[in-house]
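Structure in, sequence out. Go:
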């Protein structure tokens, strides 16, 4: 990681360390439980038939990793990587109670220098992480590097919706109600102000799709939910790379 990116990465890591305990509950409340539906869509998009090895970048409390573990065969393996110790601690706690937990393992590291050999995974997943990453070009380059030829990337995130009137009501909810909920439930208004401002200042899904294509992925697609407030971006590694 470049030295100028460290303070931002450190701020993000400590923010997630602080909100880890309330993260799952707030996710369900804020998204009206739709986050589970979107995660399943991402898993279905990432897993080709026969996929056995999956990497979840920025796994947090592991929900996307568990969804992937439920979807792959018994001989499949899912690695969840995150730089927040507290988020991973919760993922490990859930691992014991999830039937597919034995197919998952967790690792504390940065996604910008993933500690894996080239061409290690059939699929790379990432959910609600992109907005927090200081260098998206490097992030997608790493995802590409660790994927096998023919491997798939599925990236889920929140974006500022553009069409009125949805964008108006969304803005009201996301920038007023969400920080209020964050203050009440997670008792951390600053963290939830950060999360809503990270969406406001984020790229368009089309810009992110271009970054994915620039990293070498082909067949890059954007699927929009809720008027583009949540998008699923997918791309494939060419069979000969
Ligand atoms: C909003 S949470 C998403 C967690 C999970 N993927 C989900 O779907 O609920 C973002 C996670 O990304 C992690 N993260 C952000 N930047 C990272 C990086 N450069 N390397 C590793 N983890 C990162 C944070 O620590 C946090 O746990």
């Amino acid at each position: 990681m470049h030295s100028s990116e460290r303070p931002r990465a450190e701020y993000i890591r400590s923010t997630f360390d602080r909100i880890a305990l309330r993260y799952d509950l707030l996710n369900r409340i804020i998204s009206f439980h739709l986050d589970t539906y979107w995660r399943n869509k991402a898993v279905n998009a990432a897993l080709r038939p026969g996929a056995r090895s999956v990497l979840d970048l920025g796994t947090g409390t592991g929900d996307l990793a568990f969804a992937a573990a439920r979807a792959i065969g018994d001989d499949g393996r899912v690695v969840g990587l995150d730089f927040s110790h507290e988020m991973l601690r919760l993922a490990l706690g859930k691992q014991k109670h999830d039937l597919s937990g034995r197919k998952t393992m967790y690792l504390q590291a940065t996604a910008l220098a993933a500690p894996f050999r080239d061409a290690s995974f059939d699929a790379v997943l990432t959910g609600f992480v992109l907005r927090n990453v200081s260098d998206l070009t490097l992030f997608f380059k790493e995802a590409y590097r660790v994927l096998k030829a023919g491997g798939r990337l599925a990236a889920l995130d929140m974006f500022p919706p553009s069409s009125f009137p949805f964008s108006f009501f969304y803005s009201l909810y996301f920038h007023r109600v969400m920080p209020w909920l964050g203050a009440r439930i997670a008792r951390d208004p600053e963290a939830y102000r950060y999360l809503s401002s990270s969406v406001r200042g984020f790229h368009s899904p089309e810009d992110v799709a271009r970054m994915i294509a620039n990293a070498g992925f082909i067949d890059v697609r954007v699927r929009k939910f809720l008027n583009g407030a949540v998008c699923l971006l997918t791309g494939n590694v060419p069979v000969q790379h």
